[in-house]
Design goal:
The chain is mostly helical and 108 residues long. It contains three helices and two strands. It folds into two domains: 63 residues, no CATH class; 44 residues, no CATH class. It is 60% helix and 6% strand. The chain has a two-stranded antiparallel ribbon with strand order 1-2. A hairpin with a 6-residue loop joins strand 1 and strand 2. The chain is elongated and about 70 Å long. The protein starts with a helix and ends with a helix.
Length: 108
Amino acid sequence: MENVIGFLLASLVFGSAIFLFWVLPIWLGLRWAKIKGVSKLWMLFGIHPVTGWIAFLVLKYGIEPRKKCRKCKESIIINAQICRYCGNEMTEEEINYAINEFELRKNQ
């Protein structure tokens, strides 16, 4: 009986460690990728726990939020006034709308 309890306790500790060091950074990174409007493929770095944490920190603090150009659908910086791919000019209303959407996603 003591062996079973010891095994269950060890399994719980091991499972918690895996969740904390491996699954949690992937989940957080996917969340911030969605908030900032960047590719979720960043979290392929999560194959290794250390690079998963690094990718999460880069997504949260190192990448500017993005929006899609309405003309060419490319990803551009959220406060860009002109699309760098097609030259489409954004109005102030579009820029403010994109910023407000980002703030709403961030606060959810």
